[in-house]
Amino acid sequence: MEKRVLVLNLDHYPVAVVTVQKAMVLLLMEKAQQLSSYELLEIRTVSRSYSYPAVIRLAQYKHIPYKGVLLNRANLFRRDRGQCQYCGSAKQLTIDHVIPRSKGGKTSWTNLVTACNRCNVLKGDKTLDQVGMQLQTEPFVPSLSYFLASYAERQAPEWLPYLETAVAQLQKK
């Protein structure tokens, strides 16, 4: 049941999610400052009590090269919210190339979607126009903030004010 802590860079851009132990070390060494805490939770020692951090900001800017979100099955399903992008079903999910590989389609975030087995077989090796199908949402390249906002909606609403752009992106979907 241990909560996670969102770490922001000095410019308030999210850079990591860490354990409360790591966050407390950063706070006690004054390498970060606490911006938000979880209500009703605290960390107690023999002589002191600390608020349970939810969001911390690094004291100095750290240049962290952006590597992007890893394109894999789990992240693709997470981006598409575990639903077929053609019919909305959540059963027997597979991955579909919007533009089939045989027609020059690449394996990329913008060409892959989650599809149920039925829709994937129906579409087959054809384009959307050829079979008269439509995507419910356009495939996009998700950011780290997008996934963090998705997590925060369920597990850590304290993070949401610090992930506003990602939340706006989620609400469009």
Rounded radius of gyration (Å): 20 Å
Instruction: Work out the oligomeric state of the chains in this entry.
Output: single chain
Query: In which range does the helix fraction lie?
Result: 25-40%
Number of domains: 2
Work out the strand percent: 15-25%
Low-confidence stretches: none
The strands making up the biggest β-sheet line up spatially as: 2-1-4-3
Helix-strand makeup class: alpha+beta
Mean of pLDDT: 90
The end-to-end distance, rounded to whole angstroms, is 29 Å
Give the beta-strand count.
6
Order of helices and strands: EEHEEHEEHHHH
Shape: elongated
Total count of helical runs of at least 4 residues: 6
Question: What would your notes on this structure say?
Answer:
With 173 residues, the protein is α+β, with helices and mostly antiparallel strands. The protein has 2 domains: 5-66 and 152-172, no CATH class; 73-131, Orthogonal Bundle (DNA Binding (I), subunit A). Helix content is 28%, strand content 24%. It has 6 helices and 6 strands, in the order ββαββαββαααα. It has helices at residues 20-28, 73-79, 117-123, 128-131, 144-155, 164-172, and strands at 5-8, 14-18, 32-44, 49-58, 93-97, 112-116. The mean pLDDT is 90.
Q: What's the SSE blueprint?
A:
Blueprint: E1 5-8, E2 14-18, H1 20-28, E3 32-44, E4 49-58, H2 73-79, E5 93-97, E6 112-116, H3 117-123, H4 128-131, H5 144-155, H6 164-172
Parallel strand pairs: 1-4
Antiparallel strand pairs: 1-2, 3-4, 5-6
